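Each field is set out as follows.
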Amino acid sequence: MNSRSPRPGTSCPVVRFRDVLREPLRNGIYKPKEFHGRGQKVINMGELFSYDFISGQEMKRVELNDRERITSLVEDGDLLFARRSLVLEGSGKCSIVVNPMEETTFESSIIRARLDADKAVPRFFYYFFRSPEGRGLMASIATRTAVSGITGSDLSQLLIPLPPKDIQCGVAGWLMEYDSLIENNTRRIKIVEEMAQMIYREWFASLRFPGHEKVEMMTSEIGPIPKGWRAGLLRDMCESIDYGYTASAVEKPIGPKLLRITDIVPDTIDWPSVPHCPPPEKNPQKYRLLEGDIVIARTGATTGYAKRLNKHHPESIFASYLVRLRVKPEHSNHMIGLLVESDDYKRFIKANLGGAAQPQANAQVLTSMPIAIPPAQIQSEFAEIVKPLLDQKETLQITNSNLRQTRDFLLPKLISGEVNVQNFETEPVAQGV
């Protein structure tokens, strides 16, 4: 296995990543369009960037032949790495497969690593590759081009720590306690989001808002709408529509946070992990994010993914692959935020994408969705109802962020042996909240 000496200051030997693999790294499959829409589930970049633990989520499907089913399915414990990303920090992003519910494959922009169970605990190495040290290793092999990427050959050569298996199990088991708490809060966040989305659909899709029985309907270019409403486009409710700032992230906490596509694709923006960048020299206020601003991905596999900014976000600006919508004061950013976070909005954007090799949508496309615009009073009443739900969601998000920070702080100390995992009995709840 070619073990090397321990790293300075640790008792943990290092080996090549290839030395802990059960079989060689493998890139995912590419299939022509006629094989899509049926067959096995397929993990795309959207799932990889959205989920750390990939299991039974809804996915697209692709039909595999018998040989592909032998070579290109995933199994419990497989590590998946992003081969390419629009931003350097996304290259090599690692997720882990957990008890897939049915046959599932993975697409060509993803690398699969299957570990040797006699040497390696998959959860331990998942945590390692999510740690600052692991991310630093990925950055060392990533290309710095328009689309950043890693190769399987470079990944296999990385020098990684290899503690004894009992230590790997102890570290993974303890950190899973944090992830269990995070997952529980994430489920609660999902419930709150679904409640807010249900109210949004009831009021503005089904048009069953309070008092709708007494309102006459009238014809419009988008179909019947209540009298007093008007037909329009999403952009009609926006005060400004802007492209983001071209900048490079920096490791030092200097300057504002730089919000990127990879930060808005997950269910929650994990602000502590968002990097800083030098402040814009010209017109810095143009790129500053405010409470209620809405940011939307405009290129890549996750085009159309969006987030509304809450009141507790740090000083931040948005990167060039995002578009920011700032809603007019007379309209509700709560309403628009739920609109752009809906599946209907993603489907609309997908149907109107441009670009062949790289999907993309400009600001005009991202704001061209037809909508029925309600009176200000209706929007205000809606905001009063959904605001407590969105505040609860934000509280849970902050709790999860604290848990992640504590987990990631402990990880290198547990790996190095600076903190003895067998004697480490502090409750995760006390650490994370």
Summary: The CA atoms of residues 18 and 24 lie 7 Å apart.
